[in-house]
Specification:
By secondary structure, this protein is α/β, with parallel strands linked by helices. It has three domains: 79 residues, Glutamate Dehydrogenase, Chain A, domain 3, CATH 1.10.285.10; 132 residues, Leucine Dehydrogenase, chain A, domain 1 (Rossmann fold, 3-Layer(aba) Sandwich); 164 residues, NAD(P)-binding Rossmann-like Domain (Rossmann fold), CATH 3.40.50. It is 48% helix and 15% strand. It contains 17 helices and 13 strands. The strands form three sheets. Strands 1-2-4-3-5 form a five-stranded mixed beta sheet, with helices on both faces. Strands 7-6-11-12-13 form a five-stranded parallel beta sheet, with helices on both faces. A hairpin with a 5-residue loop joins β1 and β2.
């Protein structure tokens, strides 16, 4: 069909997608946001519509699902389900994290893999997009139980991944411990030491700054957005959700740039520290969450004048800058209205799709500085790409060198978003900018490689 109307194109495409992928709501949401951004561009480039580039991009090149049997410390047989979505390899081998969480589904991983394709494209590094994981819950498990699960998981997954095929990394529920167990099993099965996982320990092939990269990158991106208005993070009050690596290192970089981080959260609730989360307090959080895997409520028990809000997220706390760093759809329309009503004018997503569709549209409508995850949180996969490069060279860059490369990549992503997201004299639409900039590189590569 020769489309003239972007709205009609969007409606027809989403009807097609939902018919082929029923009940996959997260996947529908992720694709809708992209299609709305691309519709006008595609209507003006009918050759891409004729070649069905978008239809091919939303169809995974490969979907892998498998059984993961393992034995707990009591000798009980346990069964989980493993996934790997190898979404698109037009610009490089599949690259994306593994998530271990009881709520995951095929829809979760398809949305994450689709987002990953565009995110990886934005980094300008040669990486395709993929995602995977399991409904296994590492919380409350012993190290031995986690090890046995990871070994069973990789015993199936190893045949589908490789340094030039598919390079997994960590995500929610998958940190340095899990990556270590999986890498060890892969090495054992393949009898080779290759950079097939990223997020490895620095003693055995990992990159400096990799744990920090997503949080650092989100703050670097927020700083670049503020520069467009002659401003900076210095002196700003910042609310942050989550308390894992992304949130922890977002706090660290906010402190580096002179801001005042005041919140962290986990699945049980939120802490608000009016005095600010200092470096000393941040070290306590790292020990709490990375060491003995406690709950963020313990922070409120440890420090005076800290409020704890059970079963709440931090978006009711007054702030200048909000950094959602926990999980998808954690910030809804009501939260967005509250943030705006309290004076927040910068939102940079450290997590993947943490704002609902309605919240995102409100941010765009009000013209605040709003950066979607595929742009703002690309720092993690960018440094994973740098880790792959270092593995290939059998060489390691210094902490300062990696951090400088990360900052440069985030600055370049910001520039691309501005280039494609300008609205005349109005505010930059970073959602449109990120989606078009990421899409163009992948689409051109797919056109060059034929119908494959």
């Amino acid at each position: 069909m020769n489309y003239k109307d972007p709205v009609r194109f969007t409606e027809d495409f989403m009807s097609y997608l939902k018919a082929k992928n029923p009940r996959e709501t997260e996947f529908h949401q992720a694709v809708l946001v992209v299609v709305e951004s691309l519709a006008d561009f595609l209507v003006k480039n009918p050759r891409l519509i004729k070649a069905k580039i978008l239809e091919r991009m939303v169809e995974p090149e490969r979907v892998i699902m498998f059984r993961v049997p393992w034995i707990d410390d009591e000798g009980n047989v346990c069964i989980n389900r493993g996934y790997r979505i190898e979404m698109n390899s037009a610009i490089g081998p599949y690259k994306g994290g593994l998530r271990f969480h009881p709520t995951v589904s095929l829809s979760t991983f398809k949305f994450l893999a689709f987002e990953q394709v565009l995110k990886n494209s934005l980094t300008s590094l040669p990486m395709g997009g993929g995602k995977g994981g399991s409904d296994f819950n590492p919380k409350g498990k012993s190290d031995n139980e986690v090890m046995r699960f990871c070994q069973s998981f990789v015993t199936e997954l190893y045949r589908h991944i490789g340094a030039n095929t598919d390079i997994p990394a960590g995500d929610i529920g998958v940190g340095g411990r899990e990556i270590g167990y999986m890498f060890g099993q892969y090495k054992r099965l393949r009898n080779e030491f290759t950079g097939v996982f990223t997020g490895k320990g620095t003693d055995w092939g990992g990159s400096l700054i990799r744990p920090e990269a997503t949080g650092y990158g989100a703050v670097y991106f927020a700083e670049e957005m503020l520069k467009t208005r002659g401003d900076s993070i210095e002196g700003k009050k910042v609310t942050i959700s989550g308390s894992g690596n992304v949130a922890q290192y977002a706090v660290e970089k906010v402190l580096d740039l002179g801001g005042k981080p005041v919140t962290l959260s986990d699945s049980n609730g939120t802490i608000y520290d009016p005095a600010g989360i200092s470096r000393e307090k941040l070290e306590y959080v790292k020990m709490l969450k990375n060491g003995y895997r406690g709950r963020i409520k313990e922070y409120a028990d440890e420090y005076d004048k800290v409020e704890y809000f059970e079963n709440q997220r931090p978006w009711h706390i007054k702030c200048d800058v909000a950094l959602p760093c926990a999980t998808q759809n954690e910030l809804d329309l009501k939260d967005a209205e509250t943030l705006l009503g309290n004076g927040c004018f910068v939102v940079a997503e450290g997590a993947n799709m943490p704002s609902t569709y309605e919240a995102e549209h409100l941010f765009l409508e009000k013209g605040i500085l709003y950066a979607p995850g595929k742009a703002a949180n690309a720092g993690g996969v960018a440094v994973s790409g740098l880790e792959m490069t270092q593995n290939s060279m059998r060489f390691n860059w210094s902490r300062e060198e990696v951090d400088e490369k990360l900052k440069t990549i985030m600055t370049n992503i910001h520039e691309m978003c501005v280039t494609y997201g300008k609205n005349g004299d109005g505010p930059v639409n970073y959602v449109k900018g990120a989606n078009i900039a990421g899409f163009v590189k992948v689409a051109n590569s797919m056109m060059s490689q034929g119908i494959v």
